[in-house]
Amino acid sequence: MKRLVLPLILVPGAANAHAFSTGADAYGAFLEGAGVILGYPALILPLATLAVALALWKTEGMVAAWPAFLIGQVIGMALAPLVGIWIALVPLAFGLVLGALSAIAPLERLGPAMPVFAGLTGAAVMAAALEGHSFTEIGVAIRLGLFVAANIATAALAGVVRVILERWDGQVARIGARIAASWLAAILVLYLAFAVAGPAA
């Protein structure tokens, strides 16, 4: 049964705004916000791609890009009430670009562009997660859940890649990380194609 359900979970549906509950307590609302980040492939996949890219960029890539990533998330939350359903495609596009760059380009040469990518990805993910919701409609606990989950997930994944690259120092580990980035890019291509095409009639 699980083998039948998993492919259905990964198939994107219509790009509708996330419906948040309003009656949950603070802890439940926090978990709900975190679940949006961790439970939606269109949000977690771009963050995973960013994590791989930052780890490939340099050893302290996540730390160096974190300020821009945080600022981008705040901007994304502020812009969320102003964007339309098209914002759902933007994190996928940023993830696809980052995945392709991580797979084929020497990221250490991109230098200043990496924090910019981190900021843009953070903004796109938060804007897509909160798309269409006003400032008063979504409580602080839900926003905190989104914020914490996005940061912990990205930092944890970047940390795992960093440990692998440091433990198995050499080209083999870097090639493996680049292959992982190419897989993420390929998944994002398919996901973006399904999202653009919309549900089958």
Automatic annotation (TrEMBL):
- Which keywords accompany this UniProt record? Membrane, Signal, Transmembrane, Transmembrane helix
Instruction: Tell me the leader sequence span.
Output: 1-17
Spell out where the chain crosses the membrane: 35-56, 63-80, 86-105, 112-130, 142-165, 177-197
Q: What name has this protein been given in UniProt? A: Uncharacterized protein
Organism expressing this protein natively:
Maritimibacter alkaliphilus HTCC2654
